[in-house]
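Project outcomes to date are best conveyed with an example. Our students and postdoctoral researchers have been running inverse folding experiments weekly, and each run begins with a structure described purely in tokens. The record below, which covers 290 residues, was selected by the lab manager from last quarter's runs and is presented without edits.
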């Protein structure tokens, strides 16, 4: 869940709800990326035909985990990652050098602005978890840019999430408060601000953009008590909840003190032996008409 600045690195127009240059946020995204890839069953669990794919771009790549895994697995494919954060891009570039992945590269770029790529320059355009910085009216513009840089017959692929489902009152309340703040910031599609509201919109966006052969695959990410990933998600939420403190106050959902009281109770509930919770992720893909 990362974001994207003005080309050249100016983040003044960033719509990201936390500091994209934060070291804590980078560490959180590294951990989250690993958890999600693991629980989704890999980088391409839908097993697309990549035989004609020579060049891939990952938009809002964060610290570059998905890009690096694709570059390692498919050494004959060039993979490019772009993100808002100079810190994230520097980290990802350093990882690519250490791993000697000459087919992976990274650039600072704002995906809410015209992308600094030529027309029809990629065979596959990918995004994961971008809803946290996308204003409602930005989605059609992003799809138009994705189609511009995608070659005829190329693949567009989006993955996003519905969050907050659990059997614990404080955990539910914490996520409902985040969703209310996102709604007030014009960043979700829930008519009442009670849920994230993006995954059911993605297939329509693909249809409206004129993509063909649209496919969908859903993933249940279970981080309940007794699962291997509960601890990882606990640390992810502990960092994430703290990072959004200024945002919650800015959106007038809660003061920092009120928000801390709620999310600390939520984190306590995550340690209880009857804790049950799940995220639902949806990947949607489609082909640009040839």
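After processing, the design step wrote out the following sequence:
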């Amino acid at each position: 869940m990362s974001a994207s600045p003005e080309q050249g690195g100016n983040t003044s127009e960033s719509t990201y709800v936390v500091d994209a240059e934060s070291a804590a946020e980078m560490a959180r995204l590294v951990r989250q990326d690993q958890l999600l890839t693991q629980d989704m069953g890999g980088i391409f669990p839908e097993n697309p035909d990549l035989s004609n794919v020579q060049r891939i771009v990952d938009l809002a790549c964060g610290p570059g985990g998905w890009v690096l895994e694709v570059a390692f697995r498919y050494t004959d494919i060039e993979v490019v990652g772009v993100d808002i954060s100079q810190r994230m891009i520097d980290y990802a570039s350093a990882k690519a050098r250490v791993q000697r992945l000459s087919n992976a590269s990274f650039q600072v770029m704002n995906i809410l602005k015209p992308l600094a790529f030529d027309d029809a320059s990629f065979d596959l355009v990918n995004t994961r978890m971008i809803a946290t910085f996308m204003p409602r009216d930005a989605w059609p513009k992003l799809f138009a840019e994705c189609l511009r840089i995608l070659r005829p017959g190329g693949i567009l692929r989006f993955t996003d999430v519905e969050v907050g489902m659990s059997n614990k009152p404080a955990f539910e309340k914490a996520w409902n408060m985040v969703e209310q703040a996102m709604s007030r910031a014009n960043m979700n599609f829930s008519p009442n601000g009670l849920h994230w509201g993006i995954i059911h919109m993605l297939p329509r966006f693909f249809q409206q953009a004129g993509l063909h052969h649209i496919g969908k695959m859903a993933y249940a990410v279970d981080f309940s008590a007794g699962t291997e990933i509960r601890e990882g998600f606990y640390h992810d939420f502990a960092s994430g909840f703290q990072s959004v403190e200024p945002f919650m106050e800015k959106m007038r959902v809660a003061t920092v003190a009120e928000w801390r009281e709620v999310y600390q109770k939520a984190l306590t509930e995550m340690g209880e032996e009857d804790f049950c919770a799940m995220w639902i992720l949806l990947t949607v893909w489609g082909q640009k008409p040839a």
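Residues 44 and 157 are 10 Å apart (CA to CA). The chain has one domain: 23-287. The training component of this project remains on track.
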